[in-house]
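Input structure tokens:
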């Protein structure tokens, strides 16, 4: 599920940059796969929860269910970004070079963050999970800084108001994706997944 969520997120960025329709189709199919896997996993975990579980097993099961939901939400954000890009294409909204560079920066940081959160879960790496706390804060600070620089560009007429609104929407999706990945890392930190 984590691999599919990461793939969907990557496809959504690729679609923003290259606007290739096949990439959007792959993104939609990947989101469908995420939803199917999430549904199957949820059904399985609910069935498992009716078994005689120790308190620790029950806690881990609950955290896996929560983590599944976080990964599914990353897929939802990827789908929303693809739909937003469809809108940008229809309305012929173009970002400035500076805005594209900033989107690349926050995407790269968020993408690496998601991959490292997934590694922390897969390897039960508490040390890596602990390192992600500061990186999560850095992504949140970056979002705030990018909002300010983008408003400056708007005020100076370097980009259109429509591009400005959509830029803010995109970076907001990225920080939400980082939030969901941080939820995964937090469960590793408390050794509950």
């Amino acid at each position: 599920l984590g691999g599919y969520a990461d793939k969907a997120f990557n496809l959504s960025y690729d679609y923003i940059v290259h606007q290739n329709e096949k990439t959007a189709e792959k993104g939609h199919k990947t989101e469908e796969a995420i939803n199917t896997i999430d549904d199957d996993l949820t059904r399985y975990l609910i069935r498992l929860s009716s078994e005689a579980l120790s308190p620790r097993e029950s806690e881990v099961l609950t955290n896996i269910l929560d983590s599944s939901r976080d990964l599914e939400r990353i897929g939802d954000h990827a789908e929303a970004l693809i739909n937003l890009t469809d809108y940008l294409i229809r309305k012929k909204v173009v970002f400035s070079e500076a805005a594209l560079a900033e989107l690349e920066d926050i995407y790269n940081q968020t993408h690496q963050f998601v991959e490292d959160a997934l590694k922390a879960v897969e390897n039960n790496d508490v040390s890596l999970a602990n390192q992600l706390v500061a990186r999560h804060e850095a992504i949140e600070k970056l979002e705030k800084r990018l909002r300010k620089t983008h408003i400056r560009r708007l005020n100076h007429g370097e980009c259109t108001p429509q591009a400005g609104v959509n830029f803010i929407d995109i970076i907001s999706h990225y920080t939400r994706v980082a939030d969901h990945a941080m939820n995964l890392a937090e469960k590793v930190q408390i050794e509950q997944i």
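The mean pLDDT is 96. Residues 15 and 22 are 9 Å apart (CA to CA).
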